[in-house]
Amino acid sequence: MNLRINDTPCTLPPDAKVADALALIDAKPPFAVAVNRQFVPRSNYASHALQADDRIEVIRPVTGG
Length: 65
Hints:
The protein is mostly beta strands. It has one helix at residues 18-24; strands at residues 2-5, 8-11, 32-35, 38-40, 55-59. The protein has one domain: Ubiquitin-like (UB roll), CATH 3.10.20. β1 (2-5) and β2 form a beta hairpin.
């Protein structure tokens, strides 16, 4: 299935979960995840099913002063 991770086109198997998308991009904590602009709790990464054309955002904290 085709979807976008941080605006980059990606392909995952039809039964992919958020955890699969994170593994694809080798995401390293800390980060937060939203699918179609809806926050996904970390406890749901392994169970949140993805659909074709989903837009996944992996958001990293920004520090500054």
